[in-house]
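<purpose> Linking amino acid order to shape
<body> The protein record starts here
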Amino acid sequence: MRLIGAGTRPGQQPAASRRIITVPNVITVVRFLGVPLFVWLVLAQHQYGWAVLVLALMAGTDWIDGYVARRFNQASELGRVLDPLADRVALVTVAVTLVLAGVAPWWLLAALVVPDAVLATVSVIFFRWHPDLPVSTIGKVRTAALLVGTPLLLLAKVVGHEPNALGVAAWVLLAIGVLGHLVAAYNYFWAMVHKHQDQRNQQDQQGRNLGAGL
C-alpha cells in the first residue's frame, strides 16, 4: 500500500476545485484544532501520554485528508493552501511547546522556524500571499518523520530512565526530519524564485505583444 500519494488512481490528474467545504478540508481543520489541545495537555496538564495520542491522531489526519482528496477527487484550491499551512502550524507549535516544556532543545525550534520565516518573507514579496506550489516528496517525508519523532520523544519522557531506545529512535527521526526540512526549504525557495521569474517573463512578453499590436 502506498503511503505517499495514496489514493491516486492510475492516470489520474485531478483538477483542484474552488469548493470550500470538502471532507479533506474538514479533516484539515480538525488537525488545526488538535494543536491547542496538544499545547494544553503538555504545558498545563503535563499529560504527555495523552499528548502523544493527540499527535498520533494529527499525523493520521495528515495522511487521511490527502488520501480522501485523491481517491474521491475532492482536491480543492483551498486545500492546497490549507493542508501545508496546517502542517507548518502544527510542527512549529509542537516544537515551541516541547522547548518550553524542557523536552526539546532550542536548536530544534530554530531549525524549523528560520527556514519557514525566510520562505514566508519571500512568498509575501514575490506573490503577496501564497506561491501555490505542490508539496514535494521530501516535504512529505520530512513532515512524517517529524510527526512520528515528536511523539516518540514524549514517550521516552513518559517511560523515563533516559536515555532509552525510544529516545534514540526519536532523535534519529527528528534528525531526518530536520535535514529534510532544510532540503525542502532550499528546493521550495528556488521553486518560488523560478516561478516568479516565469511570471515576470510572461508579463514582459504580454507587454511586448500589446505594444506590437498598437
Notes: The chain has one domain: 23-209. The two ends are 58 Å apart (CA to CA). The chain is about 75% helix and 0% strand.
